[in-house]
Each structure stands twice: as C-alpha cells, then as structure tokens.
Amino acid sequence: MVRPVAATLAWLRGLYDWTMSLAAHKAAEAWLAFISAIESIFFPIPPDVMLIPMVLARRERFLRIATICTAASVIGGAGGYLIGYGLFDLVGQPLFDLYGHAGALEQARGSFDDYGWLIVLGGAFTPLPYKIVTVSAGAMGLDFLIFMIASFFGRGARFFIVSTLLWRFGGPIRTLIEERFGLMTTLFFLLLVGGFIALRAAL
Q1: What DSSP line would sit under 67-121, residue for residue?
Q2: Other beta carbons within 10 Å of 172
Q3: What whole-number distance in Å separates Cα of residue 10 and Cα of residue 70?
Q4: pLDDT digit string (tens) for 151-187?
C-alpha cells in the first residue's frame, strides 16, 4: 500500500513541476489556456501553479493573464458539463473513480436540486474539485446558462483576486496566496452560503 501511494505522490510532484515549468515557456499564455481548460475536466494540477509565476514575471499583464485563465477554465468547464450530460457512464464515472469520488453524484443529488448554482460557484471559487462539479452539473441536468454564469463569476473571482494581489504586492504575498488563499476563500464561501440559507429561511 505504501509503495503505490509513494509512486502516486511522486507522479503528482513530477506533474506539478512540469506544469510550473510551462510558466517560463515562450508560449506560456497558450499553455496557461490549455492547462486551465483541461483542469476543469480531468487534470489534477490547478492553473494557479502557472498563473502565479507568470504574473510575478510580467506584473503589467496581470489582467490579461487572469482573463486567459478565466476564459479557458470556463470553456473547459463547459466541456466537463457536456461529458456529464451525455457521456457520464463512459467518461464521467471513470473520472470520479480515478479521483476517489465514486459515490459523489448520488450524494450530491439532493443538494444539486436545491443549490446547484451555489455548488458550481463554490467549486469554481474554492479549492473544491471543480472538475467533479462540472461533470456533476451536467449529469444532474443543471441549467446550462446558470452553470456558465456561476462558473464565470467563481473562476473570474478566484483568478482576478490572485492576479490583482500579485500585481499590487508582488513576491512577498506569494507565500500567503499559496498557503492560505484556499482556506480564506473556503471560509468566505461558507459565510456566503450561511447567509444565503438564513435569508431564504427568513422569507
């Protein structure tokens, strides 16, 4: 058991290092778009790994880099949605099995009926596995327009906040973003959900 886990971790570390190395490639923006798109469907390494060093290297391009990341990620999310909608048994379920979420669809069924857009928003904004959310949204038949709007705002908020912080504060804030940003966004989203549920209960 220890050996397969160690091998998996080593593989992920190698994939992480390869993804980060793309930030210095002469076609870095094209690679960023590619990684952002496939991460929304199946790729395990988040595009932040490229976005952070790219913004630090060219801080004047922070809006362009965030826009590329957001647009490609949302387009990839649409691909994940379509896989869930039309190819779940063939492609979606094996992806869930690969990431250890074999029963995630059934567990989320009731939640998607009531709070589908919030789940998509949370998956797009926080460290939750967005790829699982995109495929689930399609399999659940969540309205595609609602899915796209929630994805756009969630992904956009995440990448533009990171890019803006790096543009404003530079390298000194990198450690905070890499180590604490996920926790901060999760706490913010939980507060948002709590407020939404409380408001709905009061009406």
Answers
A1: HHHHHHHHHHHHHHHHHHHH-IIIIIHHHHHHTT-TTHHHHHHHHHHHHHHHHHH
A2: 8
A3: 29
A4: 999 999 999 999 999 999 998 888 888 877 677 677 7
Give the residue among 22, 37, 28 at the shortest CA–CA distance from 72: 37
- Residue pLDDT, tens place only, 110-132: 677 777 888 899 888 887 788 98
- Cα distances (angstroms) measured from residue 68 to each of 53, 99, 153: 15, 26, 14
pLDDT in tens, 8-50: 778 788 998 999 999 999 999 999 999 999 999 999 899 999 9
**Residue type at 97?**
D
The answer to whether 135 and 92 have CB atoms below 8 angstroms apart is yes
